[in-house]
Amino acid sequence: MRQAEFGVIGVGTLGAMALWQLARRGCDVVGFEQHQPGHQLGAAAGDTRWVRTASEEADCILLMERALPLWRELERDSGHALLDLCGGLYVGPPDGDFICGVRQNCDDFSLPHEVLTAPQIRSRHPQFAVADGEVGIFEGAAGQVQASLSVAAAAAAAQRHGARLEIRCRVEAVEPRADGIHVLASGEEWRFDRVLMATGPWGRSLLPDHIPHLEVERFHVSWYPIDSSARRGTSTEPILERQGADYIFGSWPSVDGLTAKVGFAAPADRLAGAEDMHQAVSPAVIELTDEYVRRWLPGLVARSVRHVMGMDAHTSDRKFLLGPSRADSRIVLALGMAAHGFKMSPATGAAAADYLLHGESSADLAGFLPERFPVLPFLDYRSA
Ligand SMILES: Cc1cc2nc3c(=O)[nH]c(=O)nc-3n(C[C@H](O)[C@H](O)[C@H](O)COP(=O)(O)OP(=O)(O)OC[C@H]3O[C@@H](n4cnc5c(N)ncnc54)[C@H](O)[C@@H]3O)c2cc1C
Known about the structure:
The structure is a single chain. It contains eight helices and 20 strands. By secondary structure, the protein is an alpha+beta fold. The protein folds into two domains: 2-44 and 148-211 and 317-383, 3-Layer(bba) Sandwich (FAD/NAD(P)-binding domain); 88-139 and 216-314, D-Amino Acid Oxidase, subunit A, domain 2 (D-Amino Acid Oxidase, Chain A, domain 2). The strands form three sheets. Strands 5, 6, 7, 13, 14, 15, 16, 17 and 18 form a nine-stranded mixed β-sheet that branches. Strands 1, 2, 9, 10, 11, 12, 19 and 20 form an eight-stranded mixed β-sheet that branches. It has a three-stranded antiparallel β-sheet with strand order 3-8-4. A hairpin with a 2-residue loop joins strand 11 and strand 12 (188-197). The chain is elongated. The mean pLDDT is 94. The site of flavin-adenine dinucleotide (FAD) has 36 residues, from helix 1, strand 2, strand 3, strand 13 and strand 18.
């Protein structure tokens, strides 16, 4: 039987960040990934991720504030440029829930921002349409991050710091015993003092009775050709976000100079589990997204030319599961990132590393603790 101090199951977004954190703290750690770090078959699909703070929920803002310097640290450590702080523009009616919430966050957390009128937005960012009377809140410390590259860079940096990485290696079983957590991976048995479950949308497949219920949802992003004549004169492009009662619409700056990525996230494209993932996109979703592009993004040709479906998991309260499992505190969970976990993943990974090393992390993560949900206990192997 092989053994190490810590095992990280799933080297996707969260797992790679936790592996990096543990390895750079000198820990003896092994990561297991069923595909390759940076693959596009799970929650990190779709090239890039928004990074923004002002439109996050209050309890995530503290994580975001920790994440931004860690992104820069990962860039230095890995030698890759990952984060592009091109700014974020949040647009809507001044008295709508979305803009009021963003303004409240800016005030409560002293987030630097500018409030722009509709004519100011049109003059500074002619690639975005705005309705008369709408306002924009511009956050300079927002932008986008490379998705696959970030995961691959964190995993490679972890290896350079001494982590072992088992790739194309599927964990088949996790079993707590008196002498440690036993893990069966590609037919081989391992023993760890503690393990991190960072299996993303595959979340509970290993310990379904002992991990709180997670829903799995698909999310669609598409790419639209840039109409270069319409964009003439604009030198920078921030990320754009608009929110309605039941949707988030937005765009990411181009990474290829030819197309820009657009997302229209409306809830409830549910899957029974990650195994049911598929790439089909309904014509209705395509038409709806095209319509929003036609209306709000005049700099793009309103016919999508590429589509990607990704999936993510969430709890019933749409907050993360981050902390020791209620069933056995030697198993730490970093799951259910609810479609917005990428931007803060370096901080979430650091918190997961704290839980593995010390059994606790900073008190302001209390709202994410898995103990808020009941689960079945493990049978008492200690007295067996
Ligand atoms: C289309 C889309 C757009 C998004 N946009 C944004 C955005 O703009 N900004 C933002 O912050 N967030 C965004 N998100 C959310 C964010 O990407 C996710 O919250 C985050 O990537 C979740 O990471 P994870 O580690 O939980 O899952 P993953 O990154 O999927 O990692 C889980 C890993 O575990 C591995 N694994 C699972 N089971 C096993 C096993 N038994 N053995 C070995 N390995 C296993 C998987 O192969 C996978 O690599 C978006 C999500 C989607 C789908």
